Amino acid sequence: MWRLFLFFLPITSFPYFPEEFGGGTLVRPLSVYPLIFLCFLVVLPRLMKPIPKTVLSLAPFILAAFASSLLSLLAGIEPSLGVTVFDRVLRALVTLVIGVAIYLAVALTPHSIEELRGALRWIYAGFSLAYAWGTAQMVYVLHYNHAYFLTLSRIQRLFSLRKLFPSRISGMTYEPNWFAEQICFFMLPWLLASVLRGYSVFSWRWHKITVEWLLLAWSVVLIIFTYSRAGLINMIILVIFAFLIFSMRKPARKDHHRSKSSLWFIRIVEACVAVGMLVGGIYYAGNKNEFFARIWNYWLENEQTSVERYLEYIGFGARIAYSEAALQTYTVSPIFGVGLGNYAFYFDEMIPDQPLARIPELLKILSPEEGRNRLITVKNFYLRLLAETGLVGTAAFAVFIVALLGCVIYLWLSNDTQQKFWGTGGLLGMLVFAVSAFTFDSFTLPNMWVVFGLITAATKIFPQTESMRNNPSP
């Protein structure tokens, strides 16, 4: 079940999903099926034993989220689009329980360094299959063939709710942005850490080339063809930050004769070359996608420019409106929030006054449509916490994040190569979360929970291993 859970992570909008487990939503991780078995066979028994304090630091947020949601049932909020407050709160709490269960399963299941390494190998195996499927989709992006596209699109519906996009790749997910976000969360932090630290979870190696090197190159190519703006920003930030981390390591013996300033100069040049190559590849691929090319075409095509117009031009106008509405919703109940999932009920009255004709996405949402009962979400994790759980819930979640950062720093400062690898990967994973949280708001997506769980598991396992080495049993 553990291996299936890790292997199925790339599939997050599985069509065949019970209504009781969020079957009416877009986020439907296939990993939930083996997760149910893991909860009964592993998680619940191990919760009866001493557990890492990092896990305990999440408990205040869970209590705050449940408290704010239960209080919202007394607020007298009117139903919207046929959905009541009770229905919305129940669904939101189920998604939170699933997310926390994913975190607990990843944090508590591995019990040794080898099991931790094995977890990464199974994640890589699952994503290798998703990468192969994404590569097959690249064919019609580069040279469109209608019959080929229809065939792949029909296969896609076997494990995803949505058909493929003719000009972008989606992997096994609902849309290209989800695929890019998956790569940034699950793959890039650990692959970059492996390459920079010279550490591999596989025994195969050809000179300096490892499996991680190959997967890293494959990841970069696929992210470019998702044409996900958030994914590309994440990737560029990760590359720059990874090179900065690499620059902080102790110089090798052959580099001792070089001054620290010259080593920094070399690292900066390397980072600039890497980013330059990425930007070049993005520009080349972007010219095959008119919508994506808007990122730079706006400044080339318009003489009178402004940041506000630019954001609308590239499709960020609706996101800004969601964020402004969330900030206004926060003022309704700043201490405890309006309850999980209830932002949707306040959206119509909290949205700022503006011409809707320029933002078709908002016009569609605000216009009643027969049979439409899917309510709007914030699409910003930070603002969702603030609006729906208030200062109490946001502060409680911040404590959990600080605890995870403490774990990462502990691993990163270690002199042990393996611990440094997990610390570096964890640090990059936390960076991805910090940036990506501006563009997602779901508790059910496994992305952040798996990263948080691996960090917690590594921090739990390595001290235990050292203790056993120092105090062998008689």
What does this structure look like?
Helix 4 (59-72) runs antiparallel to helix 17 (381-412), helix 8 (176-197) runs parallel beside helix 10 (229-248) and helix 17 (381-412) packs antiparallel against helix 18 (417-436). It is built from 19 helices and two strands. Strand 1 and strand 2 form a beta hairpin. The protein has a two-stranded antiparallel ribbon. The two termini are 35 Å apart. The protein has 474 residues and is mainly alpha-helical.
Structural class: mainly alpha
Radius of gyration: 23 Å
Low-confidence stretches: 251-257
Strand order of the largest sheet: 1-2
Count of DSSP-assigned helices: 19
What percent of residues adopt helix (DSSP H or I)?
A: 55-70%
Question: Mean pLDDT, rounded to whole units?
Answer: 83
Report how far apart the termini are.
Answer: 35 Å
Whole-number total of structural domains: 1
Strand content: under 5%
Largest sheet: 2 strands, antiparallel
Please trace the helix and strand order, writing H or E for each element.
Answer: HHHHHHHHEEHHHHHHHHHHH
Q: Say how many strands there are.
A: 2
Shape descriptor reads globular
